[in-house]
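Sample entry was shown:

___
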Amino acid sequence: MKKIIGAFLLLLSSSVFKGMRSSHTDHLEVAKLKMSLMYVQSIKTFRLLFISLLGMGICLVFLLAAIILFHVSLFLYAPWSMNTKMTLGLLCSLIYFIATMVVFSQVFAADKWLRIFHAENLMDHLYQKEATQQDSVSPLEQR
């Protein structure tokens, strides 16, 4: 943390003294400081990402263990016939498969991610730019 604060103070002081004397080495030092700050911020971001993924992984393991234990106890100790247990098992697996497909389609939808990161307009702009470029190309050049 001390290094981050020190780098930030050096960056601020270099911008203050930049007006007093400007040379190529000052600009290079400022660029190095900015790159160092970005590097430290990226390390922090990856650390938080790793912690989040680890936490989600642990929760997923506990969820799967609970589902497995529920089904094992249900199928071992329920006083049903073998056909009833088989039908219930197949029905549960079908429900889990459909639920998984729905969740995956919702979570990994490209439009949703574009909305989350406010990039919808960027994609619209790119599509419009591509359409105008295709319109400007003559039919002979398209061949």
